[in-house]
Amino acid sequence: MKDQLIELLTVATDTLKDQGVVDVDSIPSIRVERTRDPSHGDLASNVALMLARPAGMSPRKLAQKIVDFLPDVDWLEKTEIAGPGFINFFLKSRLAIDIIGQVLERGETFGCNESGKGVRVLVEFVSANPTGPLHVGHGRGAAYGASLSNLLKANGYSVHSEYYVNDAGRQMDILAVSVWLRYLELAGERLPFPVSGYQGDYIWDIGATLHRQSRDALRYPAETILTDLPADAADGGDGEHYIDALIERCKFLLGIEKYRQVHRQGLTEVTANIARDLREFGVEYDEWLAESSLVENNAIEDAIGQLRQSGDVEERDGALWFKSTGYGDEKDRVVQRDNGLYTYFASDVAYHMNKLERGYDRLINIWGADHHGYIARVKAAMTALGARPEQLEVMLVQFVSLYEGGEQLKMSTRSGNFITLRELRQSTGNDAARFFYVMRRPEQHLDFDIDLAKSQTNKNPVYYIQYAHARVSSVFRQLQERGLHWDMEQGLDALEDLTEEHEQELIKVMGRYTELIVDAGDRHEPYQLTYYLRDLSQILHSYYNAHQFIVDDERLRNARLCLIKASQQIIRNGLNIIGVGAPHVMRRD
RNA sequence: GCGUCCGUAGCUCAGCCGGAUAGAGCAACGGCCUUCUAAGCCGUGGGUCGCAGGUUCGAAUCCUGCCGGGCGUGCCA
Q: Does nucleic acid strand B have an atom less than 7 angstroms from the CB of A38?
């Protein structure tokens, strides 16, 4: 509708230009927007205000000329010139009413469109190191990434969602050694636990599995293990050095096969736990891509080799540097350390090269805000590898702060002192958690008040919206109980009877839905949906309170049923995108 | 220091690709259940849009500079 109006306005301004009434070189791109105030019509344009200065004419006078040259169309009720020179458009109400039939006809697919047709996009999100359970921060990335993927799919994009499993680095060795130490304790050895090891209870669980499966096969005396190790941080030493020494000792004693067994046990249990959490949270991936698979295929060597060929790396101080400053980064980055090991960044370069090789038009990475320093270097690498930097869009999701009893909780994965996503889901429910996570713009900090989230009682916007949905189902149950049935055809035929203010408002807001999906998708802003759904639910609740739907007048009754059924469908479609259930019954605990 | 995100009602936040009187929820106060679920509805009060300049017919919105807060600034991952 907007587009059609823009076309009309373009015709009008072009005519003015051709006739020399308006003497301007270029007409700025014309914009038409929905009005906030109904007295300003349905849509409005500020062309006249934009054009007034170059045309040397007063805005209102120019607006009048534009209106005079507007082609006639049957769907426009009237136009008005208002304020400083806005042109307000009033649409024929018949047009707005058509939305009801469209929603009922398309059902689940209403709102889906082809604005992203033919574009292949890879959305990578969460990708937390498989060293422990997901915490509440990961939950935000998960909810955001899943909602964004759904939104893009609704806009016709071909979406591939992916979790990158960092299963090849030092952190995994720390996990393995942590598991082994817990296993040894369970086997009866007494030895200190490293300060830099993973402290969480889940490590005990994995150690227990190992003990059950292998009995004493992986056991060595504590003295053998601890001989000649440097001091841990607890004894005035360096915790990082200590754990590295412990890793070496572990690998030496166990040998490659048994070490791999411990390593694999830790990885598979933690990864399975993460996958289960995400699945239960309604977050599904098309692919779980392991860093180790890139290592096995020599992807890192290949990527670095390609950079070497293009002259983008050089040796310095015994290390290999990627000259990212040549691509706008603030400093060069090491890809291979002086000890011969590749850096985390090197594997990221390989991973992004891999993404490009798979032929995606756009790559969307959802990262925690603490990774923002990485954007420049990854884009630099992509450019060096021959991609356009705009192909990669990094969405930074700001931190989630937890509050309990008015105090902010400090969290650390290492110490095991954190609230897990699972704990949060269990206390608030998946629906509330999904909704709250996407309610804010991603670049906005999220204060999560645990007490409030745990309080089961009320005030939750998600319940408000779900209740609106359930109420409609309830009306249809009532209808059946009274021995009546909904005649959709008759209702659609009687839509002109929907003249009440609430009804008009509801129709108007429904008409915005598809545009909202397109805009929210383009701007990667699923949160817009939460505000929209609240608005729509608000009107539906008001309407419910103000009017009876099951009335004696059969035509009016069926028309109203069409209206609320269509509203319900939109609520369901919207909730579906943000991963929240649309219940037919609301129950109190 | 530099980079980046943020600063709008008592609280949490929309609005920010310039537009018409700045919005919502919560909290506060007052009403509405013999009518399709009161997890609801109706109403009232509440704002120097961090501060100061600039651009513009027009600035919460764009630019500059301050002030305040978060995060980052590893041959860690």
A: no
pLDDT of residue A25: 59
What's the CATH number of domain A461-577, 3.40.50.620, 1.10.730.10, 3.40.50.300, 1.10.1670.10?
Answer: 1.10.730.10
**Residue A449: which pLDDT band, with cuts at 50, 70 and 90?**
confident
What number is the ipTM of this complex? 0.95
Degrees to nearest 5, angle at CA A87 with A84 and A88: 115
DSSP string, A327-348: GT-SS-EEEE-TTSPBPHHHHH
Helix A430-439 × helix A461-481 angle, to 10°: 130
Chain A span 109-138 residues with beta carbon within 7 Å of strand B: 129
Q: Domain spans of chain A?
A: 2-91, 120-164+285-397, 165-284+400-454, 461-577
Model confidence pLDDT, tens digit, residues A161-208: 999 999 988 899 999 999 999 999 999 999 999 989 998 899 999 999
Give the global pTM: 0.94
Q: Does domain A2-91 have CATH number 3.30.390.30?
A: no
What is the arrangement of strands in the sheet containing A392-397, beginning at the earlier edge strand? A287-290, A158-165, A120-124, A362-368, A392-397
A452 touches strand B (CB under 7 A): no
User: Stretch A288-316: mean pLDDT, rounded?
Assistant: 94
What pLDDT was estimated at residue A415?
47
Q: Are A263 and A130 in contact (CB under 8 A)?
A: no
CATH number, span A120-164+285-397 = 3.40.50.620
Residue A441: CB less than 7 A from any atom in strand B: yes
